Amino acid sequence: MSSSRTTKSPVSRKAARKAGKAGKAGKAGEAESGALAGHRMDLLEAMLRIRRFEERCVELYSATKIRGFVHLYIGEEAVAVGVNEALTPEDAVVATYREHGHALARGVTAEAVMAEMYGRTTGCSGGRGGSMHLFDAARRFYGGNAIVAGGLPLAAGLALADRMRGQSRVTCCFFGDGAFAEGEFHETANLAALWNLPLLLVCENNLYAMGTALERHQAQTDLTMRATSYGMAGWAVDGMDVEAVEQSARRAVEGMRNGTGPHFLELRTYRFRAHSMYDPDRYRDKAEIEQWKSRDPITLLMDSLRESGAPVDKDVARIERRIAAEIDHAVEAAEQAPEEPVESLLRYVTSATAEAVT
After folding, report:
1. According to the model, what pLDDT value does residue 348 have?
2. Containing H/E element for 175?
3. CB neighbours of 159 closer than 8 A, spacing ≥ 6?
């Protein structure tokens, strides 16, 4: 008796199973590819936010709406974004005075940072810190430290506190190559290794300590070799490649969470603008600046996304509109925010007891 059901041979059933697995694997691969593309767009957006925020700061400074010292991070965005991607909200971040990028990458809002630039009470430091002293305890962002290498001992203390409490947290400290000329770096590196602290030392080597080239202030310019001489793991990374930065930071953070002690990353990067808005920038060859600009971290990632077939231009246009609206709102909010009353200027400067005595 015939049957309408077709019986598959063992070979055909095996082929079907294989095809099914391949289909599932294909869908999984597509999902993974989509997630990766989405993550790369997130990295791009984070870098663009820093770039556009600082470009607006240049305009506002030129219009004298922002006063004091302003040190721009333009060109170094991949460092702050890549490293922060490897950290959790429970980890701590200590930064330099060139910290707009660190703060924004950490999640401090553009509105809070812009208000601080304006010196308004709604700023992340209550308007008392300005450009060089951004602070947000809720996000465990501890400066903004104006003294070269000044954040390093603070970071060691935070890491020590976490270790003594048995907390699986990491402290990340950003600093420039100029910190190698300061005793604080060497003291901190020694104690971090001696006490096996979960401290990530991130050197943003942009080749210049203010206006002094690295080879003019350091006899040994291999900074990674010098740091690892203290007995910690460390390596140099292309600081213009945000994905390379993130991968290296994740590797270091994972090691520290597993108890392998402090790690050092030398992020080889470059600032496209002068040391500060006051700096005439006469110590660098223009050709050198242009050469580094050809490796703009934002352009490098956009080119890589285009090569992968991602619809970059349409997505970037949408991101740019979103960031522009965000910064416009931040500027408007800052201009409408109040300044601190003169009568409260001594608040936080002396203790209540001392105020009562005087």
Report:
1. 82
2. strand 171-176
3. 92, 170, 171, 192, 197, 198, 199, 262
User: Dihedral of the CA atoms 280, 283, 288, 292 (nearest 10)?
Assistant: -60
pLDDT of res. 340: 87
Residues with Cβ within 8 Å of residue 60, at least 6 apart in sequence: 66, 117, 331
Query: 188 is written with which tokens?
Result: 């901190």
Q: Is the peptide bond before 144 cis (omega within 30 degrees of 0)?
A: yes
* CA distance linking residue 210 with residue 69, whole number of Å: 13
HSE, side-chain direction, 13 A CA sphere, residue 275: 16
Look up residue 182 and give its two tokens: 């300061």
Tokens of 150: 């000044």
Cα 69 from Cα 11, distance rounded (Å): 75
Can you give the pTM of this predicted structure?
0.87
337, two tokens: 């925010």
DSSP code string of 81-100: HHHHHT--TTSEEE--SS-H
C-alpha–C-alpha distance, residues 83 and 253, integer Å = 10
The CA-to-CA distance between both ends of the chain, in Å, stands at: 111
Contact predicate 109/269, CB 8 Å = no
Assess contact for 76 and 101: CB atoms under 8 A. yes
Residue type, 164: M
Which residues neighbour 194 within 8 Å (Cβ) at sequence distance 6 or greater? none
Q: Residue ranges of the chain with pLDDT lower than 70?
A: 1-33, 353-358
Distance (Å, whole) CA 86 – CA 200? 11
CA–CA separation, 161 and 91 (whole Å): 12
Q: Which two tokens stand for residue 232?
A: 């910690």
